[in-house]
Amino acid sequence: MDAKKRILELTEILNEASRRYYVLDDPYITDQEYDKYMRELILLETKYPEYAFPDSPTQRVGGAAVDKFAKVTHKIPMLSLSNVFNEEEIKDFALKIEKEGITPQFVCEQKIDGLSISLIYENGLLVQGITRGDGIVGEDVTNNVKTIKSIPLKLKENISLEVRGEVFMHKKTLAKLNKEREKEGLPVLANVRNAAAGSLRQLDSKVASQRQLDVFIYYLMEPEKFGIKTHYEAINYLKKLGFKTMEDTKLVYNVQGVLDYIKEETLKRDKLTYEIDGVVIKHNIFREQQEIGYTAKYPKWATAYKFPAIEVLTKLKDIIFTVGRTGRITPNAVLEPVILMGSTISRATLHNADYVISKNLKIGDIVSIKKAGDVIPAVTGAIISRRTGQEKDFQMISNCPMCDAPLIKKESQVDYFCPNESCPARKINGLIHYVSRDAMNIEGLGEEIVEELYNLGFVKRIADFYDLKTKKEQLLEFDGYGEQSINKILENIEASKQSGLARVLYAIGIPGIGSKTAKVLAHRFSNIDYLMKASIEDLENIPDIGETLATNIYNYFLEHQDFIEELKNIGINMQETGSIRKQNDLITNKKFVITGTIAGYSRNEIKEVLESYDGLVSESVSKNTDVVIVGDNPGSKYDKAISLNIEIWNSEKIKEIMADLAK
């Protein structure tokens, strides 16, 4: 047997098998065959080491551990990218290119959540792998790079070049790795990015080889050497050489194309086997990239759109207490401001004392924040490993923070209450609730203005809002109250009289009545006089209204007849404005859940239209849900809808329906 010839033959068979399996996802020999060929090659190379080739797949199993990684200066700096977070910033990025006299055309790529790498080939052979480091100096991790099976040790052409890409770990690989670490009593790895970075920087390449890392190559350095003029052309050339590139790379010619690509990737993000944290946008033509130029840190011809964070860490600076309109005491987290899903979060409700205790929260903790239901920020827990010993234990207060009345807690409840009906905080919050968007929707009367009007003595009761028109001259004497703004507020107050019964029922603050139940009652009784005459039994016969809620409604009207009469005398409409119900086969009598952002429509707008056709809108997905309306960043509700095989309406579908209904 010609040992050298057989070693060459086995090397080529195994390298092609790896390329087909790890790069093309197209296996053409079985695992059993692969293992057989690998064993034969190892035996031959052990017996004839002089015939082992530099691109031998045996190089991937890892060699001897090193004491430290050598520092390497990049021939061309590995610059980071600037970030954009919304449509306006993307438009601004494109406008800056246009100002250079260049017509933008963009290559859009997934932004892989991993570790940047530079790979150097000489005469077709991989000779060096270097981490990004600080962008100027990285670390030589060649031995570890060679263990990544999707990185070719030898190219299909005997050329010298440098390429750049992202090393990453698949989600399933991380889950498996963490299970093994838990069994061994080791701390779990926080995310795929940390796992990939830690794995690639293992001093023992045998450990790195066990981590099943993967790679996507996304950039060819010095493309002019190969006669390549565009980035999109370069990606195809890299693929031809045997590199693994991103399948979803797309060439578009305007900002709308970029926005459409972002929407596509947002929807498929959770279904990918790997994590992406955004989209990279690059101007396509290499010559024009140089004309557009660079800042000290970033190329001006490329940027990264970052997906809104779905979970962030920040510091719990304090826990303060607020009093609701019913007297309920709520602990609230005061946080170091942090951006979450595009908005700055500095406060979050902690619901009740039991919630704080169950989450083991201490003042000074580093805590995890998510958006519950895609909207409300929620503190999901403390990062215990980050504690310093300086944190303070949580203590529930015993007296109302506003009026100092001793708090009460019923045996069957988790909440503490201020029993003082004259408590200023209860009154202020009741007034704020009355004017809020889902209630009487009086624009211009935000929380701060309502509180100020209360403190100045202008509004102590709901009826006082409608008397403000007689106090206009007095209001003008105070800073911040101009004639134009006061006139607008007064117009909105007057217009609110026609809001209709459903909004009134929600606004006046009947215990247990939310906006949904208020609409059910308004639809059932159509006039407040009919509702006030209803017995507890009558109310209990209405779907979703149980004994406790029926009793609350009955008792409220028994105790507040004078107040209702006062509102009538003011001229507030006590009839259901939508008593003539509309029918639509797609909507009527169906249950809906809305998740994510629908461009051009707020959730409330969609909800009101659906409810006007007797559709029921819920916050949570269940087997009884008929349709889930899915916008951008849909979260877990979308996944649950898929698992339950519930009908999905995407942004285009609901926009089309809304447009048809508006005709």
Fold-level CATH name of the largest domain: D-amino Acid Aminotransferase, Chain A, domain 1
Structural class by SSE content: alpha+beta
Overall spatial form: elongated
- Uncertain runs are 62-66
- State the helicity in percent bands: 25-40%
Domain count: the total is 6
Largest sheet: 5 strands, mixed
Overall CATH architecture of the largest domain? 2-Layer Sandwich
Number of strands: 22
Distance between the termini: 83 Å
What is the average of the pLDDT values?
86
Q: Write out the strand line-up for the largest beta sheet, numbering strands in chain order.
A: 2-11-10-3-9
Look at the structure and name the CATH superfamily of the largest domain: DNA ligase/mRNA capping enzyme
Q: What is the CA-based Rg, rounded?
A: 32 Å
User: Which range does the strand content fall in?
Assistant: 15-25%
- Total of DSSP H or I helical runs spanning 4+ residues: 24
Q: Which CATH top level class of the largest domain fits?
A: Alpha Beta
Give the structure's gist in a few sentences.
This protein is of the alpha+beta class and 663 residues long. Helix content is 36%, strand content 19%. The strands form six sheets. It has a five-stranded mixed β-sheet with strand order 2-11-10-3-9. Strands 14-13-12-16-17 form a five-stranded antiparallel β-sheet.
